[in-house]
Write a structure and sequence with these properties.
Layout: H1 8-35, H2 42-73, H3 84-90, H4 92-101, H5 104-117, H6 138-148, H7 159-174, H8 183-210, H9 216-223
Helix pairs in contact: 1-2, 1-8, 2-7, 2-8, 4-5
C-alpha cells in the first residue's frame, strides 16, 4: 500500500524513489548504447532509447507533480492560507461545472464561495490533477509549472529541446518514421533529460521546504511551526 504523503520527508522519499528507478534504467540503456556504439545495431538501440527517455521525463513530471499536490492537500489548510495557484486548483472542478452548465445558480455559488468560503478547510483532489495529455510539450509543461506555483523561467532555454529533440523525435519514432539520431546526439539528450528531471525534483523539494504553497500572509506563521 502506498504511503500517504503528509510530511516533507515523505514527499522527499517518494520523489527519491521515483527518480532512482528511472535514473537507473536510463543509465543502463545508455551503457548498452555505449557498448554497441560501433556495431550494426546502434541505430536500432538509439531509436529504442528515445521513446524511453521521453517516457521517463513525462512519467516523472506527472508523478512528482501529483505527489506535491497530494502533500499540499494533506496539510489541513484553509483556502485562504494557500497561494493563489492552489486555490485555483482546488476550485477547478467548480469553475469547470459552472462553465459547462452556464447556469446562473452555479456561478452564484462560485461567487459566494469567494465571499464566504475561503475560511473553510480546503478540499483538493490530487489524483487526476495533472494531465500531460501523453504529449508533454513545453506549453503543457509550463501549465503544470503554473499549477504548482513554480518558476518556469529556468526552463525557457530548454523549450526547443523538449519540443523538438525529445517530444517530436519520440512521436516520429512511435509513428514508424525512419528517424536517425547519431550517438553524440543521443548522449547529449540523455544528459539533458537527466538534468531536467533533477531540476524538477529540486524545485518541488525546495517548494515544500520553503512552504511556497502558502499565501504570503500566512507563510511566516507556518514557517515557525513544526510540519
Amino acid at each position: 500500500m502506498t504511503t500517504k504523503i503528509r510530511t516533507q520527508t515523505q514527499l522527499y522519499d517518494r520523489l527519491s524513489e521515483e527518480i532512482a528507478w528511472r535514473r537507473k534504467e536510463l543509465i543502463y540503456i545508455k551503457s548498452v548504447i555505449e557498448k554497441n556504439r560501433y556495431t550494426a545495431i546502434i541505430n536500432t538501440l538509439i531509436r529504442s532509447g528515445i521513446p524511453i527517455l521521453y517516457a521517463h521525463w513525462e512519467g516523472f513530471v506527472k508523478n512528482a507533480a501529483t505527489s506535491y499536490i497530494e502533500f499540499v492537500a494533506r496539510q489541513n489548510l484553509k483556502y485562504e492560507e494557500l497561494a493563489c495557484n492552489f486555490i485555483a486548483l482546488a476550485m477547478k472542478t467548480k469553475l469547470k461545472n459552472a462553465q459547462e452548465s452556464n447556469k446562473s445558480t452555479i456561478f452564484v455559488e462560485v461567487a459566494n464561495f469567494f465571499r464566504t468560503g475561503l475560511s473553510e478547510k480546503c478540499y483538493m483532489q490530487w489524483e487526476n490533477a495533472v494531465n500531460t495529455q501523453s504529449n508533454l510539450s513545453s506549453v503543457i509543461f509550463k501549465d503544470i509549472i503554473c499549477c504548482l506555483g513554480l518558476d518556469y523561467s529556468i526552463y525557457e532555454t530548454k523549450e526547443k529541446l523538449i519540443d523538438e529533440k525529445l517530444l517530436r523525435s519520440r512521436n516520429e519514432i512511435a509513428h514508424g518514421k525512419e528517424l536517425l539520431i547519431d550517438y553524440e546526439q543521443y548522449i547529449e539528450l540523455h544528459d539533458e533529460v537527466i538534468n531536467l528531471i533533477n531540476l524538477f525534483f529540486n524545485q518541488i523539494d525546495n517548494a515544500a521546504s520553503t512552504k511556497s504553497y502558502l499565501h504570503k500572509n500566512y507563510a511566516s506563521v507556518h514557517l515557525t511551526s513544526t510540519p
